[in-house]
Every structure is written in C-alpha cells, then in structure tokens.
Amino acid sequence: MTSATLPVRISRLGQIAINVYDVDRATAFYRDILGLPLLFTTGALAFFDCGGVRLMLSRPEKPEFDHPSSVLYFTVPDIVSAHRQMLSRGVHFEDTPHLIAKMPTHDLWMTFFRDPEKNLLALMCEMPQAK
Fold this sequence. Notes:
Elements: E1 15-19, H1 23-33, E2 38-42, E3 45-50, E4 53-58, E5 72-75, H2 79-88, E6 92-93, E7 98-102, E8 106-114, E9 120-128
Parallel strand pairs: 1-4, 5-9
Antiparallel strand pairs: 2-3, 3-4, 6-8, 7-8, 8-9
C-alpha cells in the first residue's frame, strides 16, 4: 500500500462549530446553564470543553454557512433531574424526557431543547434497566 491508499485513520471528533449570532449570550448559556467549562475566548469566538470534544461558538463566516447547527446530544446521568434543573433556569424544551429504545443493557431516554440562538440540542441518558 502507498501512502495515497492508506486509510486516514480518524481517531476522534476534535471540534464542533455551533453557529450563533450573539456570542456573549450563547457563551453565557453554554457556560452557566449547561455547565460546560469555558476553555478560552478570542475575538468573537468562544471555546468549551465537552468531555474532550471542543465546542466552538462563532458567527457564520459567510452567508452559505448561515444555518442551524447539527443536533448535539449531551449525555447526562439523570435525565429527569437535568431536565428539571434546566427548566428552572428558563431553558425551552420541545418535549419531556421520553423512552427512545429498550436496549439489551439499558433504556435510552432523550429530550430536546433549544439554546438562545434556536439551535436544537438534546439530553440523552442510558438508564440501567430495572432487574
């Protein structure tokens, strides 16, 4: 095999960009409501750590990039408690925590919400099954 035919070998997701119009407002939401550690800011960019994956908040650089972000699914240990806590902080949810699928070792639960920029996000929880 030559270097041109070798697989790329992507090892992990390193960064996700999230389109925002008001970086300060979005930074407050991701830091204060979601509790993600703010790594740094530079210019009109803010960077957070989400379990080793960096989230970058930025204004769209060009008109063709001006669209909602992909749905990010944040894993939480207790979805009911997280939902209740976020509701008390004024987060707008699209639904309530609900069962998505019964898996062999756990039940998969989700609930969807929006950040202040109207990006759709989700909480997910892999609840151990009752024995």
